Amino acid sequence: MPSEPKILAFDTSAAHCAAAVLCGDEIRANRLEEMARGQADRLMDLLEEVLSEAGISWQDLDAIGVGIGPGNFTGIRISVAAARGLALGLNIPAVGVDGFDARAADGILAAVPAPRDQVYINAGAPRLTTRQEAEDIARGAGQTLHIEASPKDIATQIAQHTRARFHDDPAAPAPLYIKPADAAPSRDVPPALIDG
């Protein structure tokens, strides 16, 4: 294991594209760009930019860290697929870090916003709940509920968790979906195929 591991971490699980480079204990680059759409188009360019800012190349990396959710289904798939592909291509491990770990702090119950005034929390197990119930759970645990979609240091936190875990031969990152997708399959009858 290198004495100063170089880790690239990123996240697109909410309305943002975030990336950071950690070298040893030093964050050499950290970016968070707010965006409602376009993470798939922006991610690879952003990763190139933070690597350049940090003064390292893809071949210098020891591990990839990625936010696995909960959050936006499409955004989670973008990051997880990118991390798995990069790890395979670079022959380095990829570590999935959930949004609760990436937002954790003493005295708070970290929550990720969800549609319809709900939040994702991890109080024993990850789940979707109402904001009011989450506030009650936090109060009962002597904590403050902290709901944040795009913390400015989310990629930094993912990188730090990755540094602590990557040498343990982690499984490939997988999306953390707490609820089923809101989208439903089309009810249109497919056209008949004609052999001919």
Automatic annotation (TrEMBL):
It comes from the Bacteria. Residues 34-135 form the Gcp-like domain. Keywords: Transferase. Pfam families: TsaD (PF00814). Residues 169-196 are annotated as: Disordered. GO terms for molecular function: transferase activity. One of its GO terms (biological process) is tRNA threonylcarbamoyladenosine modification. One of its GO terms (cellular component) is cytosol. NCBIfam families: T6A_YeaZ (TIGR03725). This is tRNA (Adenosine(37)-N6)-threonylcarbamoyltransferase complex dimerization subunit type 1 TsaB.
